[in-house]
Amino acid sequence: MPSPARLRKHGTLNILGEWVYASNLWHINRYSASMAFFVGLFLAFIPVPGQMLLAALGAVMLRCNLPISVGLVWITNPLTVPAIFYLAYQVGALIIDVPIKEIEFALSIQWVEEELLRVWRPLVAGCLLCGLFFGSLGYFVVNVLWRIRVARQWKKRKKRRSQRS
Fold this sequence. Notes:
Blueprint: H1 4-10, H2 30-44, H3 51-62, H4 66-72, H5 81-95, H6 109-164
Pfam families: DUF2062
Domain DUF2062: 14-155
InterPro entries: DUF2062
């Protein structure tokens, strides 16, 4: 990760102000990494334009790692969006007890408008639920893996110290 001094030297972020140089936005520690996974994965499931901007704002508000948060929203990219949002739609339909409708694809603005009017409630419910689930899962997995890594490092250090004596 680049240091705040290196970022200041580059200068392109100066237009955003001083807040962009906050240390937790660029350093990796247990909190900033695990919370960045929550922010990035949660927002990856929210079907709005500007996910990267929202992830950056979320990282700033929660003082977590900015590059990880912004990078993780790219889980929903043009190749994965149909499958991810169809899964979210199915989850939402199951949760709010709405029958799952067959969707016949057509590449037109009219089709998008009509289909969104038919499926918006289960889609939004499913996106929020999936975002909360996968964001929380990412948070806890990173947190647990971090703790396991630290525990192993402590054991190795203890073993090295005992071998020296």
